[in-house]
Amino acid sequence: MSSTVNIPGPKGLPLSGNLLAFRKDPLGFLIKARQQYGDVAHIRFGPRHVYLISDPEQIKEVLLTKQSAFRKAKGLQTAKAVVGEGILTSEGEKHMRQRRLLQPSFRKDRIGKYAEAMIEYGEKMLASWKSGETRVITDDMMQLTLDIITHTMFGTSIADGVDDISHAIDVGMKYVTHKATSVIDIPESLPTKSNLEFKQAAATLDKVIFGIIEERRKHPDPSRGDLLSMLLAARDEEDGTGMSDRQVRDEVMTIFIAGHETTANTLSWTWYLLSQNPEAEKAFHEELDRVLDGRKPTYDDLEKLPFTHHVVSESMRLYPAAWAINREMQQEVEIGGNTYKPGDTLMMSQYVMHRRPDFFEEPERFKPERFAGDLLKKIPAFAYFPFGGGPRVCIGNNFALMEATLLLATIGSRYTLKLAPGHPPVEPEPLVTLRPKGGLQMAVTARR
Ligand code: HEM
Q: Cβ(73)–Cβ(345) under 8 Å?
């Protein structure tokens, strides 16, 4: 059995290792690392040893079969400032308990009732659009998915606090993104402008959320059907206990943070890809016209919109909002014949895997119809994994797919979106999630 030291990677590196080259162009760097060094590439970020794993079988071992040997990598520590010890950031036994408590709220039969809010907020947004105008679509999609998750979480109870929550979450997201990507780590205790702004936003969120939790504990009403009432009513099937107020608060924040930017970016990328691929756009419009004929979609229409589903799958293939997953070794473990040491980081990149020509013919082309057949049965598991996999697979995957499909249908049956004239070339920016760099300005034209 070989040891980690024998894994190929660039040699003769400076102290910073590959960090500068990676920071300059993370996606290009990863694609090249795989091309040059194969399915396991040794990279160094300063003193840290990182191994880029691009073999589906080995990815499966890390995320599924041998997952207990790993924990989430350090990058997530910053997120803890916002989401506390929620399901996204907790580990081991604590994570498993939270997963048991939250899972039922995200079952397919439960989330169906959020379809109406998704469509309603989509319609509400369209009411402010004017045919022929240019809009910052990335902002529109972010606001839309934030409104939807806020409504899904609290139902109609906080109409007045929505703006406060929206603003505070926005500040929190920007803070986490900035901290996760900046070279110098400024301690949270220093009174810098962004630290103070963040603290104020966190205090606002706590005040609003704890206030609502207290109110709901006093007047429980399980028939409300929103996510918060499900979290408050959730009981662990193993010991019958529920969550403390602090735990509920952490899960509310987790779902806000994990549950809107990813879907918003997926939608933005989809509008961009459709605008660049007239044939696919035509097939998309034809399906919507045939099924909806100008009316609003409903939950029951979902199964009648296969092409729209394939558009979402293909968009997540080319521009996966979660572009890489990192895991840190907790104990020595063997993966694919290599033994890794505690402290080593394994990186698995959806962006790299989804563009492999051996799994996806003409990988750079946007071809939604590739998902029409049995592609996912033909390629190995974990060659396509936009939602991760194993016990930490995205808990909101069905929610996200339903939301993206219904919003594409709501918007696409009424408007055509084209990149604004003279738009600079669109490039992906891999921050915490993969976004179109500088945002997308698009001209929106009414279709009927
Ligand atoms: C297109 C949209 C989305 C994408 C691409 C996405 C992707 C992912 C990925 C890759 C993971 C696993 C991360 C890892 O293993 O390190 C994850 C976890 C998670 N996602 Fe999503 N997600 C999306 C939407 C959502 C939505 C809508 C929600 C909630 C409403 C959500 C809630 C979560 C939570 C709570 C976790 C942590 C699960 C755990 O650790 O047990 N996500 N997501």
A: yes
> Ligand 1 pocket check: which of 262, 354, 406 to mutate, most ligand atoms within 8 Å of Cβ?
262
Mutual orientation of helices 137-154 and 397-412 as an angle, nearest 10°? 130
- Rounded to the nearest 5 percent, the helix, strand and coil shares of the chain are 55, 10, 30
Query: What separation in Å is there between the alpha carbon of 99 and the centre of ligand 1?
Result: 12
258 in ligand 1 pocket by Cβ < 6 Å?
Answer: yes
Cα 139 to Cα 297: distance, rounded to the nearest angstrom: 23
Residue closest via CA to ligand 1's atom 1 equals 263
| In the chain, where the domains are located | 2-446
3-state secondary structure of 87: coil
Ligand 1 center from residue 392 Cα (angstroms): 8
**Nearest CA residue ID for atom 36, ligand 1:** 394
- Output the pTM of the full model: 0.94
403-415 per-position pLDDT tens digit: 999 999 999 999 9
Quote the ligand 1 centre to 254 CA distance (angstroms): 10
Ligand 1 pocket check for 262: Cβ under 6 Å = yes
d(CA 340, CA 300): 48
User: What pLDDT was estimated at residue 310?
Assistant: 98
% pLDDT > 70, the chain:
94
Give the CATH fold of the 2-446 domain: Cytochrome p450 (1.10.630)
- Helix and strand numbers (H, E) in the chain are 18, 13
Quote the radius of gyration of the chain (alpha carbons, Å).
22
Any ligand 1 atom below 6 A from CB of 382: no
pLDDT classification of 170: cutoffs 50, 70, 90: confident
- How does pLDDT run across 213-262, given as a tens digit for each residue? 998 899 888 778 889 999 999 999 888 999 999 999 999 989 988 889 99
Report how far apart, in Å, the C-alpha atoms of 378 and of each of 210, 355, 359, 382, 383 are: 48, 16, 9, 12, 10
pLDDT tens by residue, 311-370? 999 999 999 999 999 999 999 999 999 999 999 999 999 999 999 999 999 999 999 999
Residue type, 63: L
